[in-house]
Structure formats: C-alpha cells, structure tokens
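User: Hi! I have a protein structure encoded as tokens and I'd like to know what sequence might fold into it. I'm fairly new to this, so please keep things simple.
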C-alpha cells in the first residue's frame, strides 16, 4: 500500500508529479503489480487517431493480480460477501481462495465449450457471485466479456450480441428483484431468435421453468461439475482487450466502449484505494449493478485487485422495506458505502424512520456516483446516514474513463456539497468554451475535457474506431471531450453541471434521446417523435416524449400506453418515457432541425419567454405544444 495518499499535501505533491512526469508516476504505481514480462514503454499516445498504449509490451493476466499475487496473504479473507434479495435467504461468503477455485473451474468450463482467447462472451446475469466469477473467468482465459444489464430487453440484448459477434451467452434461469421474479432465460431465448451464439450457460437461481435447447444450452452446475479448480491464466498483452461495455451516446445505437488490460488494472486499483481509503479488514459496499461500469470497476476489479472485501447485493433499496440498505449495513458492518443520488432521493422520500433502529456506526466513508448530487440529498446523506462524521466522496467519471476522474479522497480532501472537488493524480482536466478556447484560472464555466491520457481510458468503440474518434476526440482538437458541462469555482473546485449533449441521465442510467426516439418510432402509428430530459425529483431527469401520431381510432390513453410498451420491449423498462404528449407538430427550423431548447423548456414547465422562435417554420406549433403540456 505504498501508493496510498494520506494527506492533502501528499495528494498535492503526487498530483504535481503525475503531471510533470506522468510516465515515471504511472510506472511506479504499475510496478507493484505482477507482470509476467515488464513493459518496454510506459506510454505511447496520439489523440488525433486516437491511439493510446499504456505499458506497451507488458505481459500479464489481471486475474493473476487478484489471485496468485494475493493468495499468500489473503487466501482466507472474504473476497465477496453476497447479500440476497430476500433477507430470509442466507448470505454467501467466498474467500479469495474459494473465489479463485470457482473462477478456475468456470474458466475450464468455458474452454471446454470452445471459448478461446479473443472470443466475445455476453454476460446477462443477475447480481449473484457467479456473475463476477463469469467476468473473471473470461479475463482468465483471455475472452472479452461484455456484460449487459439484465434489465435490458431481448431486442437490446440481441443488438449487443450481434454487434460484438459473441460466441456465448452466460445467463440465469431467472432473477429475483424485490417482490418480482424476472424470466431472464426467456429473454435470452427471444434474443437468440434474432442473434445466434454457439453456447448458452445457465446459472440456476430461481428454479423457474426454462426451455433448454439441445446442444446449445447447458446448466452452469453441470458444466463445472467435473472441472478442475486449477487453471493456468492466459498470458495477455497489456493492450489486449479486457472487456466491451455498451453505453448510450447522443446518436443512434449504443456503442461498445473498449477497455484494455494493463492500464485498466492499474487505474482501478489505485483509484479504489485512494478515493475510498480502504483499510485491510474493511467491508466495502457498492450498490451498483455489474451491468454498469461502476459495477465493473468498483464492485469487481478495483476492490478485488486491492484485496478488499466487496459486498454484492442482489436486491433493491425498498424491498422488503425502505430500511433494507441500512439493515445490510448493520448486518455486515459495512465501512464504505457507495451509491447513486437517485437511490438517496428515493429513500429520502420515506423520511428517517427506516434508518432509525439500525446501527450505522461502522460507516466511515459514503460515496456518490452516476449523476450530479443535489445539495439537499447531499445534506440528508451526510446528516442521517453518515451522522455528520463520514466524508462524502462525490465521484465523477464515465464508462469511457474506466475509473474515477474527479473526487475527494475520503477524509483527505475537504468536501463541499455537490462538488466532485479535485482531479485524481494523473488526470489533467481543462475547461473549454464553445470555440474550443481553454478557460484558465478559477471562477469559469464551460465544457469539461481531459488533455492527457490516463491508464483506464477508452481505447476504441468496438468495430468502429471512427465513431470513437468523432465522438470523443474531434469536438476539441487534441483533447478527450466528456460531454459534460462543468464549473471551476474560486477555490479551484470542480462542480459537474450535467450533460451538454443529447444524452439524458435517468436514475444514473445513461440514455441517448435519439435512442429513445428510435424506439418510440417503432410503434406503427407514430409518425415522428422528439425526446428531452426534464428535472425529476427522484430520478434526477425524467424522459419527456413529444409524439406526432396517426391516432386511427385509438384513444390518447391507449396509444400512450402502447408507446410505453414499445419502448420497454425495444430497450427495456428503464427507457420508458415518464410523460408522453401527443402533439400536432414539432418546432422545426426551416432546415428541418428540431428546436430542442423549446421542448426542454416546455417539459420543465416554462410557458413563456421561449426565446427567438423566428426561425421556426411554424411558430404557432409552440403555442399548441404549451397548451397540451403534461
Ligand atoms: C460512472 C458513470 C456518465 C455520466 C457523466 C455525467 C454523469 C457520473 C457524476 C455525474 C455529476 C457525478 N458512468 N455523472 N457521475 N455527474 N456528478 N459524480 O455514471 O457512463 O454511466 O455515466 O454520468 O454526466 O458523463 S456512465
């Protein structure tokens, strides 16, 4: 733990070093890992292409750094504590040795099904330890995993299987979520009518009935039954792909963000230890789902690389009641608790009663991720959960950044409500105006960019490098553009203001407005649609859809329900619009561009001072839209 930062001056000193001598800085951090062969060049980069290589020529396996490197010291320590959806069901604990053996058995099983280094494997699973086993087994044999959130629909799943040409799907029979039992395998079956894979491995969780296709579908417990608990890890190049994770952008279909092995490993462990100030013996809990990047970096890879005990929770915050999180904190004596503002706001609505009666004194650090945290939620979290004594780490980062970019270091960086505060060592932020001019000094606001590579950054978008270049490296020359607006205050602290592109953030889930529009447009009676985000008390942002329809003889109510259903089927329930307004037309400019600014204002509840509408083809449509506001 020599790379641990302990003081503010220590952080400032290391930050300076990481900027003046980035290669020396990261080489020092990387040297504490186990490399089968050390790298020959720490960094090669070109943001024009973009082409970035960290620890080039280095050979390693990330799972050897979780297991073999730590087994002497950590074998009998809990690696994963699993807390089920239903509190009456038993908790499971896997020590580092047990997890290692499970990963090896499943690695052997994957190999016996013909999965080889470089093959893509889709993981569509509930929050059970086997989901982490699946990820780690892929990494162990050099297969590239792509986890798809188990709430996505069959059609969204099929798109991802097809895009990455997956050879196998790892899934479960069903999924317990709150009071519901969700048929996971049935969704896979439906997806596989459109997409195809060689094999499907099904973990038995709910024991519900499923159909198994002969020769293609296999039970998890059967394929591992006779496998050895030993497996020699595949030797990977530092820049070999570790995983693909699909995420939404401002255009059309989701893109496969690609992360590679060496840099991702180094950065997730380093950031985990420093942001959360994890100490040996602590129990750390991140409530994210492994289907999102937060689950990848800060449930699985970061904590396990750091030898931590990571708690995995299958359930939801409000089942069987709104005290569930706090009961789990007490039960497992959780020390670091990392969740999303949307969960905090949802629980805030139940008052403090569900907290009372639970002993939260084990808590040392609270974390926030996924969207801007409003001051009210920050104070509630600080006062009622942290009892005023736990620092809150408001961590800003993205699927593309792989790890936390801007955050306080717990107990070290003085916090300020709603501020992500300062960049981690190695992260060179800059704020640019609309023309791409860098705004220096404090007290400025603009678009957030990063001007120097960091080890866990996106390398490409799977199968379409040009898209990666256009989306992230072309808006501002020589920089990575985040898509977020930001303010740097008079103390030099960063406050993230939210997206400046057509991406909305619903309960911490990223969604492209175009993606939702495409789904709405699949309904046969929809002629055109426009989707915007609007402020939502619990979700942060809600989805507001303006839709032009051929009503036929449908009632508005019927049609709205049908459209919601269509979106649910095409993307998943998380993308269902909160409000749908049937409109006679959309505010378009003469060149045919929808003036979203107006739609956003109406959705927010603004009904006058719409700004300049003179370039609109039909200014009257704005009045009609205001009249029909939901
Ligand atoms: C980790 C994650 C990324 C987008 C990002 C922001 C927003 C995330 C914060 C935040 C304000 C934060 N990855 N975002 N964290 N905004 N403060 N602490 O969420 O790819 O799914 O989303 O989320 O807009 O660009 S993500």
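Assistant: Happy to help. Inverse folding works backwards from shape to sequence: for each of the 630 positions I chose a residue that suits the local structure. Here it is:
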């Amino acid at each position: 733990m020599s790379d641990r930062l302990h003081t503010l001056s220590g952080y400032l000193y290391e930050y300076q070093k990481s900027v003046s001598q980035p290669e020396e800085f990261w080489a020092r951090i990387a040297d504490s890992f186990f490399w089968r062969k050390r790298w020959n060049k720490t960094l090669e980069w070109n943001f024009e292409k973009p082409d970035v290589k960290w620890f080039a020529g280095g050979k390693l396996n990330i799972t050897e750094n979780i297991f073999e490197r730590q087994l002497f010291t950590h074998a009998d320590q809990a690696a994963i504590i699993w807390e089920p959806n239903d509190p009456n069901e038993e908790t499971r604990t896997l020590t580092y040795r047990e997890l290692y053996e499970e990963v090896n058995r499943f690695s052997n099983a994957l190999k016996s099904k013909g999965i080889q280094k470089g093959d893509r494997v889709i993981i569509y699973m509930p929050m059970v330890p086997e989901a982490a086993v699946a990820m780690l087994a892929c990494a162990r044999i050099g297969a590239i995993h792509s986890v798809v959130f188990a709430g996505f629909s069959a059609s969204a799943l099929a798109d991802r299987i097809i895009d990455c040409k997956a050879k196998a799907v790892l899934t479960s029979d069903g999924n317990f979520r709150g009071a519901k039992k969700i048929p996971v395998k049935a969704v896979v079956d439906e997806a596989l009518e459109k997409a195809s894979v060689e094999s499907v491995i099904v973990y038995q969780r709910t024991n519900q009935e499923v159909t198994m296709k002969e020769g293609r579908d296999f039970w998890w417990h059967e394929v591992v039954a006779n496998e050895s608990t030993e497996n020699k890890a595949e030797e990977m190049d530092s820049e070999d792909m570790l995983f693909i994770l699909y995420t939404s952008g401002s255009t059309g279909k989701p893109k496969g963000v690609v992360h590679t092995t060496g840099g991702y490993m180094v950065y997730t462990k380093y950031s985990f230890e420093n942001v959360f100030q994890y100490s040996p013996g602590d129990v750390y809990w991140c409530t994210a789902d492994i289907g999102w990047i937060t689950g990848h970096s800060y449930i699985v890879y970061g904590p396990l690389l750091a030898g931590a005990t990571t708690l995995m929770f299958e359930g939801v915050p409000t089942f069987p009641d709104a005290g569930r999180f706090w009961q789990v904190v007490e039960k497992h004596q959780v020390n670091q608790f990392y969740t999303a503002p949307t969960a905090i706001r949802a629980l805030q609505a139940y008052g403090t009663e569900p907290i009372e009666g639970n002993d939260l004194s084990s808590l040392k650090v609270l974390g926030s991720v996924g969207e801007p945290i409003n001051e009210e939620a920050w104070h509630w979290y600080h006062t009622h959960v942290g009892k005023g004594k736990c620092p809150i780490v408001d961590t800003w980062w993205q699927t593309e950044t792989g790890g936390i970019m801007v955050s306080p270091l717990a107990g070290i960086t003085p916090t300020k409500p709603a501020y992500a505060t300062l960049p981690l060592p190695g992260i060179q932020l800059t704020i640019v105006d609309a023309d791409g001019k860098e705004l220096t000094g404090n007290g400025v606001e603009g678009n957030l960019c990063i001007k120097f590579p960091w080890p866990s950054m996106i390398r490409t978008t799977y199968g379409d490098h040009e898209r990666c270049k256009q989306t992230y490296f072309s808006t501002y020359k020589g920089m990575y553009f985040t898509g977020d607006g930001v303010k740097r205050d008079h103390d030099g602290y960063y406050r993230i203001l939210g997206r400046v592109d057509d991406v909305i953030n619903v309960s911490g889930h990223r969604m492209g407005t175009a993606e939702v529009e495409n789904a709405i447009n699949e309904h046969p009676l929809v002629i055109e649609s426009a989707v915007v985000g609007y402020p939502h008390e619990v979700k942060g942002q809600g989805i507001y859809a303006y839709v032009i329809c051929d009503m036929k003889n449908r009632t508005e109510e019927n049609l709205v329900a049908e459209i919601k259903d269509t979106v649910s089927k095409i993307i998943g329930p998380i993308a269902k619009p909160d409000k749908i307004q049937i409109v006679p037309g959309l505010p378009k400019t003469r060149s045919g561009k929808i003036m979203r600014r107006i739609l956003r204002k109406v959705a927010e509840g603004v009904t006058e001072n719409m700004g300049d509408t003179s370039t609109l083809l039909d200014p009257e449509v704005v009045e009609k839209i205001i009249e029909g506001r939901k």
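A useful reference point when you look it over: The chain has a mean pLDDT of 96. Feel free to ask if any position seems puzzling.
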